[in-house]
Amino acid sequence: MSDDRRRGLSWSDGDPALRAALSVPVGEGLTLDGAATTLWGSPRHGGADAALDIGPTFVRQVGGWRLGAEGRYHLFPGASHQGYGEVGATAGFTLGPASLDLAARYAPRQSAIGGDNLYLSAGASAAIPDTALTVSGHVGRSTGEVRDAARAQRLRPGGGYWDHDIGVDWYRGRWSAGLRYADTDIEAPDSLHAGATLIGRLGVSF
Predict the structure, then answer these.
(1) Is the pLDDT of residue 189 over 90?
(2) What's the rounded Cα separation, in Å, for the pair 182 and 164?
(3) pTM as predicted
(4) Most buried of the four, 64, 84, 103, 121, by CB within 10 Å?
(5) Surface-to-core class of residue 132, CB atoms within 10 Å of its CB (0-12 exposed, 13-18 middle, 19+ buried)
């Protein structure tokens, strides 16, 4: 990908990144998930060379709704005292080629992030009939308590903020590619690698 951008913030200092992810089924609706992403000495995460995201995900279909819960711990090799954990809940509804997803993710108070962090988001996607293309978009809001302003800048530069994106993805067999426009309402001087950008990606799954 041309930038590892999460919740409107670049984790890779605006530079290209590589990501590998693995999901292992361990029970009905339960998987153990892990992902590793190159960060190349990210200043946002104490000079970390990579981010490792690990934890379980549970998903169950209830009527027309897809309900999920997850836990994630984020590790940062190459940096000290940067790891933090969070939990999340999701609800998704699919109607034909379109889907709607709502999510809440919460990181309890931890010294590594200077307080706690709540992220609420809503997203929608729709496959374009008779094509390999899917269009999608989302909007999210980050808030939380600040106990250490310097450390809280990692996840909430300048305090609470909104982010949004819209994009198009192409899927063909194991291959996928995408182009996405992302932005936030974070104002200068806290807007470094948080402003409007186009992000390209290429992926393959096995």
Answers:
(1) no
(2) 6
(3) 0.95
(4) 84
(5) middle
